[in-house]
Structure formats: structure tokens, C-alpha cells
């Protein structure tokens, strides 16, 4: 019996590391409809800060049943990504952009995500899609 409290304290100490605040941003993209009004899909860009300081970015779609409201999320593979200053021209003429590797982008030390326009290409329904957006909101609380 004497070893049980020591084991419990050791287990708690191992599991109680420093709390890391995970930054996750979910940006609803415009023009996609509302599942309860038009029966359309809601699409989002999701940006997550990784432990190494880089950001992973992907596109996701919520398809919901019009009558029940039950939904299924579909994540889409990011084929290309980049972070550009807001004044940069279109995709084909990058200017001072930071190219990502697939859906992973590493910003310069001390740079803020809100200082960039993010652009991704992703695969959905067998076709390559493109979206450009900014992160100007607080991180989405982890649920």
C-alpha cells in the first residue's frame, strides 16, 4: 500500500508537463452557402501552429444532411501553399512570398501570421482548387 501513493504521484508528475497553447484557426470561406438554408456545403481553411513553429494548412468541407443536420467533415490534401505580403500579385507572379512544402509553411522568426495572405491549392472531387485568405482572428478554442 505504501507504494501506491508514490506511483500515483510519479504518474501525475510525468503527465503534467508545461501546458502548450495550440494555435488553431478555422476560417469560414465565403460564397459556399448554408447547409440549413440552401443545402450547400460549408467550407473552411484550417491553420494549425506546430510544435516546431511552422504552420500546417488544409481545406475542409462540412457536408450536412438538410433534414437532420448531421454532418461529415472532408479534409482535402494541400498540394501547394505560400504566405505572401498582402500587396503581392496573383499566384503566377510571386513577390516576396514564402513558399511552403505541401501544406506546411515556416514564417521568418518573429513574423506574425496576420501579416501575410495565405494561399493554398488543394484537391477536391478530383480537381485542383485554389483559395486565398487572411488570418485576422483569435485562435479557435480547442473543443
Characterization of this structure:
By secondary structure, the protein is mostly beta strands. The protein has one domain (22-134). The protein has one helix and nine strands. The protein has one helix spanning 3-15; strands spanning 24-28, 42-49, 55-64, 71-76, 78-84, 98-99, 104-105, 117-124, 127-134. Strands 1, 2, 3, 4 and 7 form a five-stranded antiparallel β-sheet that branches. A four-stranded antiparallel β-sheet has the order 6-5-8-9, with no helix packed on it. Strand 2 and strand 3 (55-64) form a beta hairpin. The longest helix is centred in the N-terminal third of the chain and has 13 residues, at 3-15. Residues 1-21 have low confidence and may be disordered.
Uncertain spans, ≥5 residues at pLDDT below 50? Answer: 1-21
| Class by SSE composition | mainly beta
**Mean pLDDT over the residues:** 76
Percent of sequence in beta strands: 35-45%
Order of helices and strands: HEEEEEEEEE
How far apart are the termini? 38 Å
Domain count: the total is 1
The major β-sheet equals: 5 strands, antiparallel
Beta-strand segment tally: 9
- Overall form: globular
Task: Report the radius of gyration as a whole number of Å.
Answer: 20 Å
Helix percent band: under 10%
> How many DSSP H or I helices?
1
Amino acid at each position: 500500500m505504501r507504494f501506491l501513493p508514490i506511483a500515483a504521484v510519479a504518474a501525475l508528475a510525468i503527465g503534467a508537463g508545461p501546458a502548450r497553447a495550440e494555435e488553431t484557426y478555422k476560417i469560414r470561406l465565403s460564397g459556399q452557402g448554408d447547409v440549413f438554408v440552401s443545402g450547400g456545403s460549408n467550407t473552411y481553411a484550417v491553420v494549425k501552429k506546430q510544435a516546431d513553429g511552422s504552420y500546417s494548412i488544409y481545406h475542409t468541407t462540412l457536408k450536412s444532411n438538410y433534414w437532420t443536420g448531421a454532418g461529415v467533415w472532408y479534409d482535402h490534401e494541400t498540394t501547394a501553399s505560400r504566405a505572401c505580403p498582402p500587396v503581392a500579385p496573383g499566384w503566377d507572379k510571386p513577390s516576396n512570398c514564402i513558399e511552403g512544402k505541401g501544406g506546411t509553411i515556416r514564417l521568418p522568426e518573429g513574423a506574425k501570421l496576420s501579416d501575410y495572405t495565405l494561399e493554398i491549392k488543394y484537391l477536391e472531387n478530383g480537381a485542383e482548387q485554389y483559395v486565398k485568405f487572411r488570418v485576422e482572428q483569435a485562435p479557435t478554442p480547442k473543443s
